[in-house]
Structure formats: C-alpha cells, structure tokens
From TrEMBL:
Taxonomy of the source species: Eukaryota, Metazoa, Chordata, Craniata, Vertebrata
Free-text function comment from the UniProt entry: Broad-specificity nucleoside monophosphate (NMP) kinase that catalyzes the reversible transfer of the terminal phosphate group between nucleoside triphosphates and monophosphates. Has also ATPase activity. Involved in the late cytoplasmic maturation steps of the 40S ribosomal particles, specifically 18S rRNA maturation. While NMP activity is not required for ribosome maturation, ATPase activity is. Associates transiently with small ribosomal subunit protein uS11. ATP hydrolysis breaks the interaction with uS11.
Residues binding ATP, per UniProt: G16, G18, K19, T20, T21, R112
Protein name as annotated: Adenylate kinase isoenzyme 6
Protein keywords: ATP-binding, Cytoplasm, Kinase, Nucleotide-binding, Nucleus, Ribosome biogenesis, rRNA processing, Transferase
Entry-linked HAMAP family: Adenylate_kinase_AK6
Stored InterPro entries: Adenyl_kinase_AK6 (IPR020618), P-loop_NTPase (IPR027417)
Length: 174
C-alpha cells in the first residue's frame, strides 16, 4: 500500500450547509483536489435510476466508489457529498459535518429553488442531525467533527481550522 503525502478530507452535511463553498476555497488554500460527488456522477452518468419523489437521479454508489478509489489511495482529495456511508472508511483521514440552524437553512434552500416536500425533508434532515449520526456510525468517532456554518465568519473560521489541520497532518506524515 502506498503512503499518502496529503490527507483525504470528507465534507458532509445536509444540502445547503456550505460544503461546496468551503470545499472549493479549501482546495485553493491547500492545493488539495476538490471533488464534488454530484458533479462527478453527472459527468460520468454514474446513476442507477431516477427518484420521482425528490426529482433527482439516484447515485450508483458502487460505480462512484470504483471511479474514485485509485485517486483516493494517492491522497490529497477533498470530497463533498450530502451523505457519507457509501464511501469506504479507509478513504478518509478526517470527516467534517457542517451544521446550519434550520431557519437559515430553510432560506438557503428556498433560494436554491427547493419547495414542498423536498424543502421540508431537507430541513428536517438537519434538525434530526441525520448526517451527523450517519458519520458517527460510518467512521471512527475521533475523526468526525461538527462545524457550525451559519455566517461568513463561521466559514472563515472553519477554513482556517482545516488549513491548519492539513498543514499539521503533512508535517506529521512527511
Ligand atoms: P452545499 O454544498 O452544502 O449544498 P453551498 O456551499 O452550495 O452548500 O452553500 C449554499 C448557500 O449558502 C450558498 O449560497 C452559500 C451560502 N452559505 C454557505 N455557507 C455559508 C455560511 N457559513 N455563511 C453564510 N452563507 C453561507
């Protein structure tokens, strides 16, 4: 097995919490590669059917994992997805679950065009901390961290924390 020179980071949480904004900026600041699972699936048509209720294609999880596995073993990847138990546990050195207050999240998802059941279910997903619990089940608890993502100050603080963590990881592993 190859030893990685850079860590792999998972950014997860309910849609709208700020994973994409954080992930892209983090990639800029660290030189790590940002991978948005939704975009990757779209590009490779890694889908397996269509969900009528949520009006979105269903991810073919096995093909997504196959597609990324080699890149992940090399290290230096920031993965962004609103779920986390589909990935192999060995992929990630750290997992961040972004969290947003439900009134804030409601406004963000409405602005994105979500309505009705899709809007309500996503806000409920955040209220019930579904993704956080999924992450705590799927990964070693010590590597799972929640980050508040309500304000631009939170965003900047999170960026600084993760950049710092990444630099430290590289010192320790090189
Ligand atoms: P996600 O990738 O989790 O779906 P996003 O990065 O697309 O979320 O962000 C959704 C919207 O919310 C976008 O307009 C940016 C805004 N946003 C994200 N995080 C924020 C924060 N910490 N403070 C203020 N606005 C934020």
């Amino acid at each position: 097995m190859k030893t990685k020179k850079q860590p792999n980071i998972l950014l997860t949480g309910t849609p709208g919490v700020g994973k994409t904004t954080l992930g892209k900026e983090l990639a800029q600041r660290t030189g790590l590669t940002y991978v948005n699972i939704g975009d990757l699936a779209q590009e490779g048509q890694l889908f397996d059917g269509y969900d009528d209720e949520y009006q979105c294609p269903i991810l073919d999880e096995d093909r997504v994992v196959d597609e990324l596995d080699e890149k992940m073993s090399e290290g230096g990847v920031i993965v962004d997805y609103h779920g986390c138990d589909l990935f192999p546990e060995r992929w990630f050195d750290i997992v961040f679950v972004l969290r947003t207050d439900n009134t804030q999240l409601y406004t963000r998802l409405e602005a994105r065009g979500y309505t009705g059941k899709k809007l309500q279910d996503n806000v409920q997903c955040e209220i019930f901390q579904t993704i956080y619990e999924e992450a705590m089940e799927a990964y070693s608890k010590e590597i799972v961290h929640q980050l508040p993502s309500n304000t631009p100050e939170d965003m900047e603080h999170n960026l600084e924390q993760i950049v710092h963590w990444t630099e430290q990881w590289m010192k320790d592993h090189n």
